[in-house]
Amino acid sequence: MPEVVSIFKNKVLLLTQTFFIKDNKKELLLCAHKYDFDILFFDQMSDFVTAVQTSDGNDLFVIDLDVLYNMQNDMSQQRRQTMFLSDLLQRLPQSKHYVYLQTVRQGERFLLQQKLVESNCLAYAEKPITNDVLVDKLFNLFGKHKRGELNAIVYLGDTAPLDTTMLEENGVELIQCLDARALHLRVKETQPDIVLINEAQYLNTEALVGVLKKNIEFDPGRAIIMLQDESSPALARKALDSGFDEILNVTDIDVLTRQVLNRINKIRASKDLISRDRATGLLNKVGLQNKALDMIRRAARSEKSLAYGVIDIDKFKTINDTWGHYFGDIVIKRLSLILSAHLGEHDLLSRFGGEEFVAVFWDTDLEQGKRKLDEMRLAFGKVAFEVTPGEIKNFSFSGGVADFPSFKTENALFLQADAMLYQAKQGGRNQICIATPDLKDCA
To answer: Most buried by CB count within 10 Å: which residue of 205, 262, 401, 438?
Structure first.
């Protein structure tokens, strides 16, 4: 029997009551192992805190609040239990984030929710929640790391009153534009999420916002914000009437930067609703196309190469027909984790549709892209799937790679990589193919 290889060695540390462990442990582990992560159970706070302190990597820490509260109605007892929660939250390492499970009754207590949010709450869920749903939600948290999430701001003016270090730490690129008459061209080139215009530039050229927004290709999700040096209701009204989405006062660089980042996060959340695959959390086809266009523009400006890979699970219809669509979904989710683990900070990954994925590697040439995709292929091939009790199967995928700048557009990159994927399938599957000047290269 092939050795079961852990993808990430991820695990969930769960602090819960003894009876919960007794009644749910076996089923929870069965569900979790299908997605290749483990669950470690704790019913003592001290043991859990020690395990969290010594944990590293991509672990999740889950706390069932019922372990802290009993069902007694004695007020003095309730106060003692509340102090116990405070004691737990104080002892948990502040560098970690936590998932809390709570009853509907607990969820109705705003002060409790406030305390959790202020104590590094990653997420919370209300019980009752079935084991398979809980595991699926935890899987989504494992796969929540977003790739290629670089956002951009274009600033019209001399010196942007923003904390550039804070922007960089949050994946936001600041692009300066000095010429108001060229602003629309700069926006078209860089496709930013936010355009910042100081009031002096607006007063000099009041048609700025109209020129931007009347372009038929203008992104309605893009925010155009005026930065005002001193509060002037009359000027603010005039600016809003001319098309600005928001007016921000330049009183403090730190505060202004945080306001801009909050707006960026709202834009990100809004775009996620239409650009991400719900099953895996990866970019969907629409999200990939938008992000890939941005990446190609950045690559052209910085003279970087890109490798564009298309991946397709081999004989996926047979997998679905033999073991069912539920098992097929597990294979897809496990593959999404494998692929995610091999991405760089600025790479992109998409579930393009069905069993097909696309990976775009930043600052990577054709040969390097082929090697990266091949590393993914080998890692996936080592994953052991238990299709029936005691029966283990391994699966594979095929792939093709194209590169920028050999191919200039996202569509051209996809068509070339897809043609190489077809070559890999026709050549026997479980391989990666690229096109070279003299021959088609597969391995």
So the answer is: 401
Task: Choose between 51 and 88: higher pLDDT.
Answer: 51
Measured from the Cβ of residue 17, the count of other Cβ atoms closer than 10 Å reads: 14
- In angstroms, rounded to a whole number, what is the distance separating the alpha carbons of residues 110 and 119? 14
User: In CATH, what number does 11-142 get?
Assistant: 3.40.50.2300
pTM higher than 0.70, yes or no?
Answer: no
> Domain boundaries in the chain?
11-142, 151-272, 278-442
278-442: CATH topology = Alpha-Beta Plaits (3.30.70)
- As assigned by CATH, the class of the 151-272 domain is alpha beta
Whole-number pLDDT of residue 148 = 46
Give the type of residue at 312. Answer: D
Number of other CB atoms surrounding residue 103 within 10 Å: 14
Give yes or no for residue 72 having a pLDDT over 60.
no
DSSP symbol at 4? P
Q: Do domains 11-142 and 151-272 have the same CATH topology?
A: yes
Give the separation between CA 346 and CA 364, rounded to whole angstroms.
Answer: 11
Return the pLDDT at 273: 67
**Distance from the Cα of residue 35 to its chain's centroid:** 18
The lowest-confidence range among 111-115, 163-167, 428-432 is 111-115
